[in-house]
Design a protein that fits this description.
Blueprint lengths: L3 E10 L2 E11 L4 E5 L6 H9 L6 E6 L2 E2 L5 H6 L2 E4 L11 H11 L17 H11 L15 H11 L7 E5 L7 H15 L4 E5 L3 H7 L2 E6 L2 E6 L1 H6 L1 H8 L7
Parallel strand pairs: 3-8, 3-9, 6-7, 7-8
Antiparallel strand pairs: 1-2, 1-4, 4-5, 9-10
């Protein structure tokens, strides 16, 4: 069974139809990239799947559950994690505090706030494991604003994996990074996801897309223009015409 499925997803803003009947599926462990020119509907699709935007029509299923009308926090507790294109963090808090807040928010008892986070069973250990995974343990006590932008992006990325996710949505994970740092991100994401976590991500960085993706879905004017293996998409002359052949366009 597919771990994530969208059926005839529609999204309009007033009279503007941004998604127009998007149907797709992703398998357990699949790394699915969304590409397409500006305005194709990639970020809108990510937000509809994540619950930040409500679908105008159609449905979204996580496993055997219809999550179309569920709030984002409900989807989170079902194992749907996500990160954002713009860092969504607490810059005055330490790296560890940011991560433990994310871990606590992903827990089922997150409304019981009467004990310090560091005394919550398992949270410090989970935070330590995640920070070691991306090489930030040595900076665990530093305020987030003192870290480089690339390190802040790593913390943002980690927050998507705090709910032990079955599916992770990544919106421009390497946004704003120089080429050298962006190249490392594919390895970091692959390490965090492992073999069993499904990734749905959009990125303008074609090196990241082709290094990380098992399959690629091309959106064009709110519809699926093509889907296939990276080699198939790269060789598709129509795809190259609308996207890959135009270096000025971004995700």
């Amino acid at each position: 069974m597919s771990i994530l499925r969208g059926e005839n997803i529609m999204k309009s803003f007033g009279g503007l139809k941004v998604l127009n009947g998007v149907t797709f599926s992703a398998e357990p462990g699949e790394k699915l990239a969304l590409i397409g020119p500006n305005g194709a509907g990639k970020s809108t699709l990510i937000n509809v799947i994540g619950g930040q935007l409500s679908a105008t029509g159609g449905s979204v299923h996580l496993g055997d559950r219809d999550i179309t009308r569920l709030a984002p926090n409900k989807r989170l507790h079902m194992g749907l994690g996500r990160s954002y294109q713009v860092n969504n963090l607490f810059f005055h808090l330490s790296v560890t505090d940011n991560l433990m807040l994310a871990l606590y928010g992903a827990s089922t008892n997150h409304l019981k706030m009467w004990r310090p986070l560091e005394r919550r069973k398992g949270l410090p250990e989970e935070a330590e494991l995640l920070l070691h995974t991306v090489g930030l343990w040595e900076k665990r006590n530093e305020p987030l604003h003192t870290l480089s932008y690339g390190e802040q992006r790593l913390v943002e990325l980690l927050t998507a994996f705090t709910c032990k996710p079955r599916v992770v949505l990544l919106d421009e994970p390497s946004a704003g990074l120089p080429t050298a740092e962006a190249a490392v991100f594919a390895d970091v994401i692959r390490k965090l996801a492992g073999e069993n976590t499904t990734l749905i991500f959009c990125a303008h960085d074609m090196d990241l897309v082709f290094n990380l993706a098992d399959s690629i879905m091309v959106l064009f004017f709110g519809q699926i223009f093509a889907k296939g293996l990276p080699a198939e998409i790269s060789a598709n002359p129509k795809v190259r015409e609308i996207y890959l052949g135009n270096e000025e366009e971004s995700c």
